[in-house]
């Protein structure tokens, strides 16, 4: 059937739907807003001398560093009972039960522009922090 707004285009028919594939579209890098009961806080500055989240978390049970993703990092933190969890430098996972200092929130309108722009090794469409930047989530027991 012709579209009502443009009779030169097809808009399906009775019990039919026109479906198109845009093969030029590619998923871009994004900061995952949530995972299960974990919700994004912000991108924070971090340093090896003074960690924003003090405890390193192993991803060995989730396929190791090569399979690092926000989901795997949050799952590892959940298993260990942490409230704050974050990913940094493509593959690192850190956690704490103490909230990160507000003064460490990295400047930027969103996590990517704030420096959390490194793709996770295990999911190249989501960010896992950056150089000296950690993307932090909190487990507040609710799903966003």
UniProtKB/TrEMBL annotation:
PROSITE patterns: WSC. It is found in: Membrane. Keywords: Glycoprotein, Membrane, Signal, Transmembrane, Transmembrane helix. The keyword Glycoprotein applies. Residues 37-140 form the WSC domain. The keyword Transmembrane helix applies. One of its GO terms (cellular component) is plasma membrane. It comes from the Eukaryota. Its main location: membrane. SMART domains: WSC. It is a single-pass membrane protein. This is WSC domain-containing protein. It comes from Cryoendolithus antarcticus.
């Amino acid at each position: 059937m012709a579209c009502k707004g443009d009779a030169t285009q097809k808009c399906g028919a009775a019990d039919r739907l026109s479906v198109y594939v845009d093969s030029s579209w590619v998923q871009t890098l994004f900061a995952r807003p949530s995972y299960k009961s974990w919700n994004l806080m912000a991108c924070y500055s971090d340093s090896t001398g003074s960690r924003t989240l003090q405890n390193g978390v192993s991803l060995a049970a989730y396929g190791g560093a090569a399979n690092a993703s926000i989901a795997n990092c949050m799952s590892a933190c959940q298993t260990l009972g942490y409230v704050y969890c974050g990913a940094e430098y493509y593959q690192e996972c850190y956690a704490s039960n103490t909230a990160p200092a507000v003064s460490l929130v990295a400047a930027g309108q969103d996590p990517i522009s704030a420096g959390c722009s490194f793709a996770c090794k295990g999911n190249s469409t989501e960010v896992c922090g950056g150089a000296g930047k950690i993307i932090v989530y909190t487990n507040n027991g609710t799903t966003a």
